[in-house]
Specification:
The protein is of the alpha/beta class. It has two domains: 216 residues, 3-Layer(aba) Sandwich (Rossmann fold); 272 residues, Alpha-Beta Horseshoe (pyruvate-formate lyase- activating enzyme). A six-stranded mixed β-sheet has the order 2-1-3-4-5-6. α10 packs parallel to α11 and α18 crosses α19. It is globular and about 70 Å long. The chain starts with a helix and ends in a 22-residue tail after the last helix.
């Protein structure tokens, strides 16, 4: 009788409308690895897209490997088994390439265990030519790849649609591993960590020793025309958070310039898919009982949102968006979401006071936020979610009090509108610590100290505790510290991650490896500071990011940028 692990794997596979090739004569076998659960992986459009695009190649076969759940982990431990592919139960040794998709820094903690379960040496220099080539891509490699760089032979810096064709071409040529890596290192968007040696001066200054054939910095690659690619749900299964949705990407990047937001900078310039392309990619899925999930960094800024939504609804399907931008949402959009059954709409004021919203370049007034909440409540949407950050640069106690006062204003109009409808929904206050991210204007600014963050949380808990129909969600403060460490650290963090995977906490692991944790978490830097991620050229000028940081400290606003066709060269990415 098949074990539970195998039955579960087969059950999932049978539920999928898989598009994978079964060409057994394929030259190149690729295992696409997601260091988190199946559910999270298959909710990721980028992961699905790479899987689909590799399998479209007539000489390639791609299978998937996921972080095993607890039951699967126990099975592997009891049987001393090897982590295998989802599709055909193959061991990693049967693949030519193991490609990791790195979407969240905190998933780095799974990597040492995954390498062990795949029976592969973790450090790149310990692997032989007989081992598969180990590659990493995803949004984490666009920001700061250094904390895990020693473990990968190759890292892709940019968007898969641009980088996959030359990567597969190089791999299919049949050259030696060393020759493939040397050749790719000369091409934009490919980072071979072994060719770059960090050197640390006694004063902590970081310098790079770069082998002559490697480019420095590595230039991020991005797709200019989104209409030239397909990015949607290629596989649907009920075993994911969006199992009943057909996801489609309508836009990429965001021109709003919120100074804390990595997505808003590493995916510049903002780009859109035409309504025609979006509807073509949804074609065949639009029928009663299906929800079209529109995906983008700022979906309510999508110029064809109303056109796409009307077409979807006319086919009897529903529309869902993750959140609406306060100053671009319309009454018609809210009514459409209510009519298609959406129960919760999220708004992101991010900060309570006008001064602090200006500092982060949110460009929203209190009146706009309150009016948006009133519009949502009046439409009959039962629940509202409000996203805020705390611990932001220049934040004071007065800003937290202003957050509470803003929420009270929103709550008053919300209750008033909902009472007239004869029901009271729930307001969720989602409050998360500010995390300084690479490639943003706040990359020079440290995280707020833990004692201050705890004080902020206590004030918010006290407010929500006595407020009916409201709940508070706060991200783990220790988890946020870990994310900040992984966002700002250099290559030496790899030893810390390995120790944490073996059971040490962050502070103890840093102490073991003589790393100054407080400096990484809390220190703010001057303009000329050398960052670990300076090895990457994101396309956005460093001088522009610094000007934005100085504007934040002066609480000054910067206008949103336009689509690339406008010819703007302000930040340098479109120059």
């Amino acid at each position: 009788m098949a074990n539970i692990y195998e039955l579960k794997r087969l059950q999932r596979l049978n539920q999928e409308q898989a598009t994978t090739s079964t060409n057994q004569a394929a030259c190149l076998r690729v295992a696409l690895v997601y260091p988190n659960t199946y559910s999270n992986a298959m909710s990721n459009l980028g992961f699905q897209g790479v899987y689909h695009w590799i399998n479209l190649h007539p000489e390639c076969v791609c299978e998937r490997i996921f972080w095993p759940d607890l039951q699967e982990q126990r099975h592997l431990q009891q049987t001393q088994g090897v982590l295998r592919s989802f599709e055909h139960n193959r061991t990693p040794a049967n693949f030519d390439v193991i490609a990791f998709s790195l979407a969240f820094e905190n998933d780095y903690l799974h990597l040492p265990a995954m390498f062990e379960m795949m029976r592969l040496p973790l450090d790149a220099h310990e692997r032989s030519a007989k081992d598969p080539l180990i590659v990493a891509g995803g949004v984490c490699t666009l920001m700061n790849p250094e904390p895990v760089a020693p473990w990968f032979d190759l890292m892709t810096i940019g968007e898969a649609e641009v980088l996959l064709p030359p990567l597969l071409e190089a791999l299919l040529e049949g050259a030696s591993r060393a020759q493939i890596l040397y050749d790719l290192a000369t091409k934009p968007g490919f980072y071979v960590p072994a060719l770059y040696t960090p050197e640390y001066a006694h004063n902590g200054v970081l310098r790079w020793e770069v082998e002559k054939q490697a480019s420095f910095p590595v230039k991020r690659q991005w797709l200019a025309d989104l209409d030239s690619s397909t990015c949607r749900s290629f596989i649907t299964t009920n075993d994911t958070a969006f199992g009943d949705m057909r996801l489609v990407e309508v836009s990429r990047g965001c021109g709003r310039g919120c100074r804390f937001c990595a997505t808003g900078f590493v995916y510049l310039p903002p780009r859109e898919r035409s309504a025609t392309t979006v509807l073509e990619q949804l074609h065949g899925d639009l029928c009663p009982g299906v929800t079209a999930g529109l995906v983008g960094a700022a979906v309510s800024d999508y110029s064809a949102l109303d056109e796409v939504a009307k077409h979807v609804c006319s086919a009897g399907a529903a529309v869902s968006v993750a959140s609406l931008r306060v100053d671009s949402m319309s009454r018609e959009q809210v009514e459409m979401l209510r009519a298609t059954g959406q129960k919760t709409i999220a708004l992101a004021p991010e900060a309570g006071s006008q001064r602090l919203r200006d500092a982060i370049n949110k460009n929203l007034s209190t009146a706009q936020i309150v009016q948006a909440a009133q519009m949502i409540a009046a439409a009959g949407i039962p629940n509202l979610k409000l996203y805020f950050l705390f611990g932001l640069p220049t934040e004071t106690d007065a800003d937290i009090q202003a957050m509470i006062e803003l929420v009270e204003e929103v709550r008053e109009v919300w209750l008033q509108a909902q009472r007239s409808l004869g029901r009271l929904g729930e307001i969720t206050l989602s409050v998360n610590p500010f995390i300084p991210k690479a490639m943003t204007p706040f990359q020079w600014h440290g995280m707020a100290e833990l004692a201050l963050l705890k004080k902020r949380v206590a004030l918010l808990r006290q407010y929500v505790k006595g407020t009916p129909n409201m709940q508070l969600q706060v991200e783990s403060l220790k988890g946020s510290q870990l994310q900040t460490f992984l966002s700002r650290a250099d290559r030496r963090a790899a030893d810390v991650i390995r120790s944490m995977a073996q059971g040490q906490n962050l502070k103890g692991a840093c102490r073991t490896h003589e790393i100054n944790l407080d400096a990484i978490l809390y220190q703010s830097y001057p303009f000329e500071h050398n960052f670990p991620w300076d090895i990457i050229d994101s396309g956005v000028a460093r001088t522009y990011l610094w000007r934005e940081y100085q504007a934040a400290l002066g609480h000054l606003l910067t206008p949103a940028c336009s689509l690339p066709s406008s010819g703007c060269t302000r930040c340098g990415v479109c120059a």
